[in-house]
Write a structure and sequence with these properties.
Jelly Rolls; seven-stranded antiparallel sheet; eight-stranded antiparallel sheet; 378 residues; mainly beta
């Protein structure tokens, strides 16, 4: 009998160990329903009659106490919610609707704190806006949490709530066709030494000029009319390329209606309503002229080496009437372009006075590109 009891306890012990391992494994898995997950991109994948919800694999901690969501597309209704939930939150409910959860809802700017009735909290959010959510770490060991929300790097407000035993997990809810966001579970949030205001890196300071283009982290989105050839949206980097910073990359996230996306180099005072490559002092590759406009295009530039040109303009224009000899300093470089890692051409071009600046042009609704001005390779 004693041997049987020992054997029984041994089996229970093994079963308990297996259950603990299974629970630990689940804790490292993200949970989602009616959400399509593609890397850090989350998009609604339902019929708009039911909620879709995503729950991150790990809760916020003292070391990682903040995350951020960039709205890439508001879809039909913009019913996007960002907040914190228990680990096993019901995935057919928006964050904030059920007890022990809280969320900021983009469509109406309301805060939902554990029930289906929201309270007016902050402004509505649209495509290109960033919603952040974090926990003040001093309350982690007290069973309570002060949860704060941000919009485009500025704090909107905070609320105190009880923490669930498993912690508070980042969550995103959606409820209409076309809704899409980019989630950053490693976003940073802290005090700025100059003005003591909370802020995050928006990457907006990397761009010297923005015309009909919205910046969301490293994502650029066309917000112009897209009705005529004069409705070009232009984004130009703040700093010109040099021998130390000679390379940048562009990935086409969404080709939009017509994929009128151009990427290349242009002089600093380039016209805001002209695609790069159309006016003098510029060189560019136009995606719409290629055989396909799908995943990615890359642009490389090096002094004395360069690789391609689809559009190149070094001719003086009647409406500008400037002396070409004063525009260029006599230096020439070879500009080259690559597509999906393969060289597609090269062209020697005179360098405008002041240098060549990475420049992106867009011209049709829905166009979005991801830009890395400082890639690790190249």
């Amino acid at each position: 009998m004693e041997d049987f009891n020992l054997h029984y306890r041994f089996l229970n012990w093994r079963r308990r160990i297996r259950e603990i391992r299974e629970v630990r494994a689940v804790r490292h898995q993200e949970r989602y329903k009616r959400i399509l997950v593609d890397g850090d991109i989350l998009s609604y994948h339902g019929n708009s009659d039911e909620v879709g919800c995503y729950v991150a694999p790990r809760p916020l901690t003292k070391e990682n106490n903040y995350f951020e969501v960039c709205i890439m597309d508001t879809g039909v209704r913009g019913t996007i919610a960002v907040g914190l939930v228990p680990q096993y939150y019901k995935l057919d409910h928006q964050p904030g609707w059920l007890p022990h959860s809280v969320a900021y809802h983009a469509d109406d700017g309301k805060l939902f704190n554990g029930n289906g009735v929201g309270q007016q909290f902050g402004p509505k959010c649209f495509a290109g806006d960033r919603i952040g959510c974090g926990v003040q770490t001093e309350f982690f060991d007290r069973g309570m949490a002060t949860v704060f929300f941000t919009r485009n790097g500025k704090e909107v407000g905070s609320v105190v709530m009880a923490m669930s035993p498993d912690g508070l997990f980042p969550a995103v809810g959606m409820h209409s066709l076309g809704e899409e966001v980019r989630i950053d579970l490693q976003a940073e949030w802290g005090l700025d030494e100059d003005d003591s205001a909370m802020m995050v890196d928006s990457h907006e300071d990397e761009w010297g000029r923005l015309h009909d283009v919205k910046v969301c982290g490293t994502l650029l989105e066309y917000i112009g009319k897209g009705k005529s050839i004069m409705d070009v949206g232009l984004a130009q980097a703040r700093h010109s390329l040099s021998t130390r910073s000679h390379y940048f990359e562009v990935e086409i996230v969404d080709p939009g209606e017509k994929c009128y996306i151009a990427l290349g180099l242009a002089r600093k005072d380039y016209p805001k309503n002209r695609h790069p490559g159309w006016s003098r002092g510029s060189v560019a590759y136009h995606a719409a002229d290629s055989d396909e406009c799908t995943d990615a295009a890359e642009v490389n530039y090096k002094q004395r080496r360069v690789r391609n040109i689809m559009y190149f303009n070094d001719e003086d224009e009647e409406d500008e009437g400037e002396d070409m000899e004063q525009e260029y300093d006599g230096k020439k470089v070879t500009v080259f372009f690559t597509r999906n890692g393969k060289i597609i051409g090269r062209k020697e071009a005179p360098v405008p006075s002041g240098g060549f600046y990475p420049t992106i042009g867009m011209l049709s609704n829905g166009e979005k590109v991801q830009v890395d001005l400082h890639p690790l390779s190249g």
